[in-house]
Amino acid sequence: TNQYSITLLPGDGIGPEIMDVTVKVLEAVGKQCDIKFNFQTALIGGAAIDAKGVPLTPETVETCLKSDSVLLAAIGGYKWDNLPRELRPETGLLGIRAALELFANLRPATILPQLIDASSLKKEVVEGVDIMVVRELTGGIYFGQPKGIFTSETGEQRGVNTMAYTVSEIDRIARVAFETAQKRQKRLCSVDKANVLDVSQLWRDRLIKMSEEYPDVELTHMYVDNAAMQLVRNPKQFDTIVTGNLFGDILSDAAAMLTGSIGMLPSASLGANRPGLFEPVHGSAPDIAGQDKANPLAQVLSAAMMLRYGLNEPEAATKIEEAVLKVLDLGYRTGDIMSEGAKAVGCQEMGKVLLQVL
Amino acid sequence: TNQYSITLLPGDGIGPEIMDVTVKVLEAVGKQCDIKFNFQTALIGGAAIDAKGVPLTPETVETCLKSDSVLLAAIGGYKWDNLPRELRPETGLLGIRAALELFANLRPATILPQLIDASSLKKEVVEGVDIMVVRELTGGIYFGQPKGIFTSETGEQRGVNTMAYTVSEIDRIARVAFETAQKRQKRLCSVDKANVLDVSQLWRDRLIKMSEEYPDVELTHMYVDNAAMQLVRNPKQFDTIVTGNLFGDILSDAAAMLTGSIGMLPSASLGANRPGLFEPVHGSAPDIAGQDKANPLAQVLSAAMMLRYGLNEPEAATKIEEAVLKVLDLGYRTGDIMSEGAKAVGCQEMGKVLLQVL
Ligand SMILES: CC(C)[C@H](C(=O)O)[C@@H](O)C(=O)O
Ligand SMILES: CC(C)[C@H](C(=O)O)[C@@H](O)C(=O)O
């Protein structure tokens, strides 16, 4: 029996509901595959603010560091929106990314044939889209110093953030990206703004340098404005995309929305010799929290990503992914992906049918 | 007779061809409206690099500053892509924006019913889309100091750019945005990343402050990642968007591509008491340069924006805009917007039919 210690961070909004379903799915697949999960739950985001006054406590970091993998649901909500930035739920998320050194964020955007009509794009444009965005997650403008709101000699306020990357930061995310591309269609598009930004110039130079070690991967470069356009115009041209923290934030969300069903998309954040963190792309949806309306499938698929990328249990991962496709084939849909003729189910009910087909 | 001195910057690639057509259209509409244009042509971009060794000369800046308005076509091309950044065509564009203090960039993204099928989005999603992106153009990370590639004590290279805005920079673009929204649907969405960036926090605070002076405009805020998603999901929700230089670069291109026909989109860059600059959203398309295949309509519509926003000649502007709609109604199409059953024309031919219907 393989045993894993998993930290659960249910967070806010719909987080606890979708986590609940996911734990049941993990336990069921664990039985089938002879895997034992030891779960512990910790606080993050608004839940941590309410209980401890800060969005991330040292105890939560400690618990995560000691576990084999971390499964996060979602954080944030109107309730905490007007707190100063240090005390906002998002700051807890940035904190755990930094603490676990989760420098590589993998965000797949895949069109499922069952849900293709949910896309706002024409069927022929999105059919078969299968993009992996590799986003740098612990550097760039999210963490660069100096930052703050400063008052100049003239008494005027000036807001400042710094977008910076060192060679080693670029090289390590480049490695993950090339290796990811190797397992896919072997086409890597690096997105930057090298026609304007010095930091992008260094980024591009390093990517070109690193590509010498991966002759089987075709490396191309695209400016971020053009990439935003091309994702809309013809998303099928992309296989693997690698980019910095801020551009990755924007482009991975745009890519996710091409599918029309972000309630279906998982993500993986990986570090160096530390537990990875796995979470859905969608947010905490405070407007439907506690109403059993949430779609748990992105969270369930995040658990599958955890099994595959974090715990090296591909068989169990595949079982979960197949179960998700099966419930879709059977016509079960939560509200966000509902379509005519399908069977409407709530969050818990979706969990039950998953267990039945697993 | 109103007289205007206009500096033409044809630039590179298809630039000269589409400028040619546009000058003829301006002269024709000038005759009808009793306006006299005095044109002078100056070098910028690759053309300036080839002739003078730099992408922008003091003479060109001088000529622009002395004129009433500047009409730019497009810059750049493969030929100059490997030069160091200071010598690249883009640097000339950034230079003229700075020299003319063109802090406000207006980028409309409008779906023309005649071209709705060109969109990669479903008809019901894009029908009626009419968005104006107001992008700050002379601040933010494009110009912030410090910037460069520095070597640390450990000998490692680090690329750095600075995203910064002062209160006065934010306030002046906010004013343009609120006033633009007042002339439209009175809904202004400010896009930032205030959950992560200090500079965005100041941006948001100032927008809220400024909104007190514009009680008739509804101000909302959206994070840039969500804005990229919402543009794809439901672009009709937007009226006027205001954002910083980098986010505006990305989002205005995404918005433009929703139309499926960026060969149709003009833009205006306005300064404080200086001549404005008007240019199409599309690039220099070096692959089709000199082949009489380019679509001149975005350039022609940029001239209309010049008449409306730069020279306060709305009647002449409207005449040009109506002529463009008329040639589309008559079924004339260049290659980029060609559809079944339409009449294929080249760049010059498109110019001729424009003159006929003007
Ligand atoms: C909540 C926010 C801080 C976060 C980010 O910008 O990274 C989110 O948008 C994401 O993409 O995970
Ligand atoms: C060419 C480039 C410097 C420019 C920019 O980034 O501003 C272009 O993309 C634009 O949007 O006008």
From TrEMBL, chains A, B:
Query: Which UniProt key words apply to this protein?
Result: Amino-acid biosynthesis, Branched-chain amino acid biosynthesis, Cytoplasm, Leucine biosynthesis, Magnesium, Manganese, Metal-binding, NAD, Oxidoreductase
Pfam families in UniProt: Iso_dh (PF00180)
Location of this chain's protein in the cell: Cytoplasm
| Enzyme Commission number | 1.1.1.85
Write down the InterPro entries for this protein, in alphabetical order.
IsoCit/isopropylmalate_DH_CS, IsoPropMal-DH-like_dom, Isopropylmalate_DH
Q: Where does substrate bind?
A: 97, 107, 135, 225
Q: Where does Mg(2+) bind?
A: 225, 249, 253
Q: Which cofactor does it need?
A: Mn(2+); Mg(2+)
Q: Where is this site: Important for catalysis?
A: 142, 193
Q: Where does NAD(+) bind?
A: 77-90, 283-295
Q: Which Gene3D superfamilies match?
A: Isopropylmalate Dehydrogenase
**Pathway(s) where this gene product acts:** Amino-acid biosynthesis; L-leucine biosynthesis; L-leucine from 3-methyl-2-oxobutanoate: step 3/4
Isopropylmalate dehydrogenase-like domain sequence ranges: 5-354
The family classification in the record reads: Belongs to the isocitrate and isopropylmalate dehydrogenases family. LeuB type 1 subfamily.
Task: Give the protein's recorded name.
Answer: 3-isopropylmalate dehydrogenase
Origin organism is Cyanobacterium stanieri LEGE 03274
